[in-house]
Amino acid sequence: MQMPEMDGLSATRAIRAVGGFENLPILAMTAHAMSGDREASLAAGMDDHLTKPIDPAVLFDALLRWIDPARLGSADAHSGRQADRSAENAPDLPSIPGVDWNLAQQRIGGDRTRLPKLVARFVSEYAEWPQRMATALHAQDFITLQNLAHNLKSASAYLGAEALSVAARQVEEALRGGEMEQAMKRLLTLDSALQAVLVGLAGMTSPAATTSRDLSVQEVGNALHTLADFLRADDVQAEDAWRELQIELAHRKNDGLDSDARRELLATISRHIDDLEYALALSALSRIADGYGVRLDAIERV
Q1: N or C: less crowded end of the chain, CB within 10 Å?
Q2: Which domains does the chain have, with CATH numbers?
């Protein structure tokens, strides 16, 4: 819904105003879950309104409702084959308090083989979250605190850590509403919940999952271009491309950014990609690319 230049509501109205597109299915995929948001989407001419994190089952049900069955082809057969492959290669998952692996699996399309990368990324991004929170608190930087809570809310939801996600949402809402005393109390609850989840996940992360491949600057540039191509094409391969590149970028220090700025920018890109906000992810990725002298609107690959 939030896009550069034109938001989803305005885009829908413009599409509906063009002749021949009256029956084109348009679905909102948004983090907006407040009262009245769904009504606003429908009033603008959308057919449905889905809130993030997107549950694949809910998304597929919506697509089945609005897409002509003749255009679906062999989707059911493909889905079955994918599920079979996922089950064959599925990793063993330890029981971790506060983490629902079934829910996590649903939110990544049913492919359990992707869970180890999801866990490694979460641990890498949020291991230093308490220190960043303390720094923002000391500086009374409540905007940064709100952004930290927002990012954690989305990331933990995709991980199946519902209680942690709810705690982060409560902190975010309290800060947005100016309820500072309530926000400080909820931050303590949030910090405890995050530490418990991180302790449980620590045993799942292997050195190989979080170790940089020590790419050359040219190879980093090529990887940035590849990811940018996926983002421009709205290609879901962007997720896997980003997971690999993110580990590399997190270990490098020659992008002109300080550690906190780099960490925040990487988390922002992850959040946008998880939320399928590819245009916003591309915009943030361009800031990373600038630090390497890479222009993502130019072809510079070797």
Answers
A1: C
A2: 8-70 (3.40.50.2300), 101-208 (1.20.120), 212-291 (no CATH)
